[in-house]
Records
---
Amino acid sequence: MANYENYMPYSTGLDTTEAINAIFRKVYQYMAFGLIITALAAYFSASSKAMLTFLFSSRAPMIILCVAEIGLVIGIGAGINKISASTARALFFIYSLINGLTCSVILLVYTNESVYKAFLSTACMFGAMSIYGLYTKRDITTWRSFLIMGLWGLIIASVINIFIGSSTTELVISILGIIIFMGLTAYDTAKIKMMAASYDSRDEEMTGKIAVIGALELYLDFINIFPVSVTLIRKQKRLIHFFIHYPCC
């Protein structure tokens, strides 16, 4: 998650709603464009024998791409004050492209029907929580500590389950993952809203940087919800069985 604390907000006296709308238009535009790049890159990679050979003939290409992804996310977040808005935007789109290459494996493992259903369900869940984060009057920025603890718990449980191999535990982890990343979507949206209300919308350079960081945050939320949605759709029958037998969960 990017660090917003490096910014020093100032009061402008401008219409707050206007400032928020101006930045969120850019945020959603950049995010949508990033998702389109990712989808096209994943489809092209999964459809090209040459790309599949390059990506999966050995472990090295995927390892390099994953390291590049992590480096770009950290680089954009940590260096946002030192680079221009246009550079940050370009890096975000490069990250979206690389992520599409690594996500191509989803198209190889799952059926098109599962992927389409997962994308639709992800879009609905993401949209609902982002709208909630944008328009709620509650201060949901206080959710941060609980969401971070939940995220770390999820990572630890996932690592442990690699050795245990419990299908029930995997299902529970997937359900909790959906809940946590839906919460992060609302939280990140509210955080971007707070930032947008603190800056002069006439400062195109600063608002551009906030829009890129915001797009990256929400893009990551969407991307993290998507594969879990695919997994749950493939396990619909077990999911229904789980809730019938464990209604308190």
---
Amino acid sequence: MSSTSPASAVFEYFPNLSDRQRAQFEQLDALYHDWNAKINVISRKDIDNLYPHHVLHSLGIAKVINFRPGTRVMDVGTGGGFPGIPLAILFPEVQFYLVDSIGKKIKVASAVAEAIGLENVEAVHRNVIEEKGKFDFVVSRAVMDFSELVKLVQKNIHREQRNALPNGIICLKGGDLGHELQPFKRKSETWNLSDFFKDEFFETKKVAYVAI
């Protein structure tokens, strides 16, 4: 496939994708540009960095856990579908439940998932406080402080384990997380995304995990 593909940033780090997955990742470019012109889910100046700053960033979670088939994952504050949609492309046998309290953002996430034929995604306009479903993991991109997120979603974490990492919350965060993770010291772990991706955007970016 041509290296001029905007999705080549993804293919470089995830070389074992099927033709279908490669096509789905490539389709995101036109879809998000089109939707973003109507409903602003990615800042206007950042839409041209869709793949490194949004798609690849979302896939950082896949560098620390390989979700097993049948796993259920809730993406809280998904916005236009990050990290849920890139992860759903990568893990077609995992169920992703995308939640956001802003209806027009869920409209975008839902439309993108449908356009690329993702059958493992459900996008719901809801405040997570009202969510009663049970999931193996909650994922999120820096929507709030860990302590607040834990209070909101610990009710949604399933007791039954099916993955190498115990069930819990996995967030994409930036900067120094020492203070934020202090209350969870014994059951938290962080990984630097700069260990996996060489773009300078990732120098301060981390994946943070708290077992529930």
---
Amino acid sequence: MTVANLLRACLLATLLLVNAACRQEQKLAASDVVLDMAVSDLLVGETTLTIRVRDNQGNALAELGTLSLRGDMDHAGMTPVLAEADTAVEGVFNVPFEWTMGGSWTVEASLSLPGGEVASQVFRYDIDSPSEDQDMADDADPADAATDTAGTNSSAYLQITNRGSDDIVLISASSAVAAAVEFHETRVTDGVASMRRLEELIVPGKGEIELAPGGLHLMLMNLTGDLQLRDNFVLELTSSAGQLYRIDFHVIEPPSSDLVDSVYLGDLVFNNRWARPASAG
């Protein structure tokens, strides 16, 4: 190899190394990413969320990571709706999604970038219910509509086991962290979810009930203070026989892990007691 060829080879190798280093330094940062979302349908049921990913100059981005979506209702008793996609065409994700109930929603889109950062954006939507659900809405308690305000409510969950032979009827609940605590239930009819207030909870003899997202739950209405992660608070349940049950709850991010610190009060055993974090507004 001549000296000139050797110099050219060295120069080419140097340029390749410099280009590789530049590409390494130009890892996409979350602050450089813009997420836009469009919705095909704002009616309860299945829909498609279209998320466009671009840089600050409006250019579509390629080689994107996984996109995760989380939809939450302002009504804290609903189960979050989760979706995920790992394929984009010219910087556009089309993700199947489902609005499970009419009302106000927030959808958080989180995109994992090749450099390890996560770009996220929160979007808000008001979802309408089909007209045939009006009868169900008419049956709902007016207090629900008056108090289901974003940022003022939370919900609490637990499992209750009755070791005795007789049914135990819980007729009221209260806590210092909320102006009111009510028994609520999520109902799904023809794929459409709705809420209703219950006057009582019955724990059957030698049986158990579970209060969990998407089903029975305790609604903490008009919070008197913020419920922050790792906080604890006391909630009281009263039975039709006049028995008072004072139990502590843990504020954690859903979904809950199994909380094994059982509380034994009379014939009842209280397990997996947790509540969602929320702001008092």
---
Amino acid sequence: MAAIDVKSEILPLKKVMLHRPGKELEHLTPNALESLLFDDIPYLKIAQQEHDAFANLLRDHGVEVLYLEKLVAQVLDLDEEIRHEFLMQWIREGRISTEKWQKRIYDYMMTNYGDDNLALVQKTMEGLILGDVFFQQNESLVDMRSDASKVLINPMPNLYFTRDPFACIGNGVSLNHMYSLTRGRETIYGEYIFRYHPDFKDQVTLYYNRYFPFHIEGGDILNLSDTVLAVGISQRTQSEAIELLAQQIFDDPHSTIETILAFDIPDSRAFMHLDTVFTQIDVDKFSIHPGILGPLVVYEIQKGDHKDELKVTRNETNLEKILEKHLKIDKVTLIKCGGNDRIASEREQWNDGSNTLCIAPGTVVVYQRNEVTNELMREAGVQVLEIPSSELSRGRGGPRCMSMPLVRSRN
């Protein structure tokens, strides 16, 4: 089995990566919500219970569940130098610029977590406050006006949305350059997994690198088939990044992708990624937010006649036609989030009614709270598996956002 093998949104899911929410959520405060991309503060205890229910449902359906934090800890277990490199990178990218402070934070992390790499990784996700490092021995500070609760290194509360920092494409990976500074450090973990972890090292082609100049996020990347990739031009993904991604994919002789469809969707917090308004749930069925229906600008990108040349065709048509053409099927059914009720549609799209995780053709994991949309899917013959979401949904992401498929199989 290949380390990464994802050539569909609907083939049976065999292996997935999750991140169980941790103490990073408890470092959210009202004043920091906007900068950390949250609208509310989830209750950690219940969020963890909901996430465990999600993971257990996947296991019950034959999916192997890996955890991001454990994979990174396994990397750090390999070699002391790797751990040193990782920790210093985390400190520097946490915007700690002076050598004195870098050393002090490094020493604190090694003293308190050096014997347990999983705890060390979880602490990097949780973030640091001034009191962690400087107030343990009643030390005085140069900045006398600061108190123990001042943030030194921000937490990463968005990490339970594992879909975004990187995206699996065929047998390769897009290790993303995130839209916001807040989420930029999340991709450090993927960098170390793919560079050093024995299950992935030297087995995965990087189609995009976190150091490339343009931002792109995994929620905008959908594997429609082994030959067709969809990417959203959105609030979080630039068209220039899609062009660079396309060149990398087409340059790989092992890639089976022949066409990349770039969907131009509204630049909006509510529509932050393509998968918040559009996901595949069966061979010929898709969930859709009505707000993007009607004429839609889609760019068809294919390999050009010369090296590094792309052939780009602009289409303004309806979504059904573009999907029927490229998936080679007679009729596509779009199941509207909230149906024809505008209020239900807007409410349930906000609560990720369109953000489904398909674990086999016609079988999807959804949030329990989106009752109108869930019933419409059942009426269309879809098996709907519901998970609780009173707290998880506060982060503005659904089951697809919370999961990174690593292997889907035809077997």
